[in-house]
Write a structure and sequence with these properties.
Strand content of chain A: 15-25%
Structural class of chain A: alpha+beta
Oligomer: heterodimer
Number of helices of chain B: 9
Helix content of chain B: 40-55%
Radius of gyration of chain B: 24 Å
Number of domains of chain B: 2
Strand order of the largest sheet of chain A: 1-2-3-4-6-5
Largest interface: A-B, 18 and 18 residues
Number of strands of chain A: 6
Order of helices and strands of chain A: HHHEEEEHEEH
Number of domains of chain A: 1
């Protein structure tokens, strides 16, 4: 469903609030079917906010956006899809190590995706965000 | 009451009073005497504002996402219950509107959560003012929307045999299949006429006894029955939400012993956004058509 909306109904993101409302629907869906995931997402948010210079905002295409100052590090859609921006070299390294996957839309960019499906994925999600933070903090 | 519990309570109380108050003023004061159109912002902007306002009361409570969603759904539920008691909305209408309310209140709550974390007051005031401005502009703008729904069935009978069942028919005994009819929405049961001619009165009687009074405006035997709805039931599910203007049955002889029966209905919606409510209106109209037309088919194929 998420894939279908993102790929086939991409034009909907131009409608004001659509992406935010769609993400809220994802949140309600997760709340009904796998509420523990929401606690994991809160844990990630709290972890990122404990790092100096970070803040969160709403991502323009729905989800929680993690920022370092005014620059975006990445964002977490409410279905558990974490997207993070790296440079090309870091991206290739992360893909080769299996810690990240090619971004679900922008395959040729520095963006990577990582789907948080189980509690075991939390550590890798935090690792990826920390790495993005460190690269911006350098 | 301890401070957090007090703030939690205010996060439910104040947004609900405010939102129901705004809708009541809009409907009974600003639009008094009009048809009371329910504009899109009442279902989108106000629930978002409700969520933002609630998030302001809950800003120091560090609510988890789970709790924030649960509270937002509760807030939406309270608004729906209050609408039932104070705004006279019908149960089916509230069932239809509830997914929109829950999604938009939750969206507002998460917008508010991020807003009040940043403490950028200028941005917050600008954003909330913008939403209120959209609400005001939307409320005073002209809203018109009409649609026609068409359905057809093929009946193994001549148009002459079908015609008498089209003009009037006895009670439909078949159990309802459509989920909204099963949930209590009235379904068509019977049709009566005062005469088989132009200008004759026709009544479409629904399962709860409600009657749509109709007047035949085109009576072309075995071909075309068109009727205007001259009076519809004073039911909160219908009043101020939808006007059924006209109905029509067309019969086409297929030349192989079968006849295509086409059912058309024209209606006007008074609830916006139409992209949402017209989905429901079309679905309900289609199921009214199909229930009647399938009954005509059974009667005609006997």
């Amino acid at each position: 469903m998420f894939r279908f909306i993102v790929h086939r109904l991409n034009f909907l993101k131009t409608i004001p609030f659509f992406a935010l409302v769609y993400d809220s629907c994802l949140k309600i869906g997760v709340w009904l079917t796998a509420p523990e995931k929401l606690s994991w997402f809160d844990e990630i948010e709290n972890e990122v906010l404990s790092w100096e210079g970070t803040n969160v905002s709403l991502h323009k295409f729905g989800g929680t956006q993690f920022n370092y100052g005014t620059k975006e590090m990445g964002h977490l859609h409410s279905n558990g899809l974490l997207d993070i921006l790296f440079n090309r070299r870091a991206k290739q390294e992360l893909l080769a190590s299996g810690k990240a996957e090619i971004h679900h839309v922008f395959k040729k960019s520095g963006w990577i995706s990582f789907y948080i499906a189980t509690e075991n994925d939390l550590a890798n999600a935090k690792f990826l965000l920390k790495r993005a933070y460190q690269s911006m903090n350098q | 009451m301890k401070a957090p519990a007090y703030k939690e309570f205010l996060g439910f109380l104040i947004p609900n009073i405010l939102i129901i108050g705004i809708i009541a003023i809009n409907r009974f004061v600003l639009q008094a005497g009009s048809e009371g159109i329910l504009v899109f912002s009442e279902f989108i902007i106000l629930p978002i504002l409700m969520g933002i306002l609630a998030a302001w009361f809950w800003r120091d409570l560090k609510l988890s996402s789970k709790k924030l969603i649960w509270y937002s759904i509760l807030n939406g539920f309270f608004a729906i219950v209050l609408s039932f008691f104070f705004l006279g909305e019908g149960t089916i209408c509230l069932i239809i509107v509830s997914p929109l309310i829950f999604a938009f209140v939750t969206t507002g709550a998460f917008i508010g959560k991020v807003m009040f974390k940043k403490s950028k007051q200028t941005l917050n005031i600008s954003f909330v003012s913008l939403l209120l401005a959209v609400f005001i502009v939307d409320s005073i703008s002209d809203h018109q929307y009409g649609n026609m729904v068409s359905d057809e069935v093929i009946i193994k009978a001549s148009s002459q045999k079908i015609w008498k069942n089209v003009v009037a028919f006895d009670k439909i005994d078949k159990p309802n299949n459509y989920w909204l009819f099963k949930a209590g929405m009235p379904s068509p049961m019977q049709t009566t006429v005062t005469g088989y001619k132009n200008g004759a009165g026709r009544k479409c009687i629904f399962s709860n006894g409600y009657t749509f009074d109709e007047k035949i405006v085109t009576y072309e035997e075995n071909k075309n029955l068109t009727f205007d709805i001259v009076n519809q039931p004073k039911d909160p599910e219908i009043m101020g939400h939808i006007d059924i203007d006209r109905g029509q049955f067309l019969l086409h002889d297929n030349g192989d012993g079968t006849t295509t029966l086409v059912g058309n209905s024209w209606y006007k919606l008074h609830v916006f956004p139409t992209w949402y409510y017209d989905l429901w209106a079309e679905s309900i109209t289609r199921n009214v058509h199909l229930r009647v037309m399938e009954h005509i088919k059974v009667l005609s194929e006997k």
